[in-house]
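Exercise 7. Given the encoded structure of a 275-residue chain, write a plausible sequence.
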């Protein structure tokens, strides 16, 4: 069945929220329903436990059943690692083994993580993403139980990256994908990945913390002040709010980047929109 013949649900999941957008079928889909609910992990359980419980509860309602789903998960549920080019590695399986080894060296035991690799050009670094198998299995089971077909699942970093890829193709660029609790900062040179780091933010003043983290990471890169352009994907953050706290120049990219959306309370739906 063509995807155009079924409604589409865009979903975002993090430890603190679940958000859903439903679009009608057809070539020009119309938004027909939306919701965002707060949640929290069950003490002693996986960090996504509260989000999956909330999602299952929403799927009990008819307006969130019998559709195709695209899911974006918080970068906090994912482990990222750049893989140096190695001409001796042949085939997808060897690449996954290599990626698992590199992830384990940084994050510890990766045996229960599903490894996905975003490949760069030949001779350049690839980006490995690790997502816990229990999280993937739980999302899939939650969807299938309610007649929802899971069509795609991405980390927020990659969903945002794919949305603005043309703007990242040339020059020395810092690309920051921000949530109120964390930021992932990627450095690219002419479209080639050079580094990727994820950092937690002080939630008392997350916007100020965001700017501080970006400035610090750029200084630690040791590029003698040649930082290039900084692109910020943080729907709800505006140029005015940034200029009030820093002289650093940002280019805002992504949906609703200059809207009246409140970053701290409305980003959930914008994150779902990126799915």
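Solution.
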């Amino acid at each position: 069945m063509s995807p155009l013949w079924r409604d589409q649900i865009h979903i975002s999941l993090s430890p603190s929220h679940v958000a859903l957008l439903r679009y009608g079928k057809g070539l020009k889909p119309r938004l027909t329903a939306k919701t965002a609910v707060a949640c929290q992990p069950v003490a002693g359980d996986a960090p996504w436990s509260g989000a999956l419980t909330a999602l299952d509860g929403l799927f009990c309602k008819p307006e969130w059943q019998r559709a195709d789903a695209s899911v974006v998960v918080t970068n906090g549920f994912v482990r990222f690692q750049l893989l140096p080019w190695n001409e001796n590695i042949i085939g997808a399986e060897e690449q996954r083994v290599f990626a698992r080894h590199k992830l384990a060296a940084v994050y510890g035991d990766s045996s229960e993580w599903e490894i996905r690799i975003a490949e760069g050009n030949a001779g350049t670094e690839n980006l490995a993403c690790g997502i816990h198998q229990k999280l993937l299995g739980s999302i899939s089971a939650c969807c299938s139980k309610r007649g929802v077909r899971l069509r795609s699942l991405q980390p927020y970093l990659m969903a945002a990256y794919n949305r603005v890829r043309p703007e990242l193709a040339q020059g020395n660029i810092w690309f920051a994908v921000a949530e109120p609790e964390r930021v992932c900062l990627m450095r690219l040179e002419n479209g080639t990945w050079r580094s990727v780091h994820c950092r937690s933010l002080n939630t008392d003043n997350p916007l100020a913390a965001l700017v501080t983290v970006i400035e610090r990471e750029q200084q630690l890169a040791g590029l003698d002040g040649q930082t290039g352009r900084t692109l910020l994907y943080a729907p709800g953050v505006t140029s005015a709010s940034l200029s009030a706290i820093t002289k650093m120049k940002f280019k805002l990219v992504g949906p609703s980047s200059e809207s009246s959306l409140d970053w701290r309370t409305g980003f959930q739906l914008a994150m779902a929109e990126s799915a």
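Remark. The mean pLDDT is 90. Students should compare their own answers with the one above.
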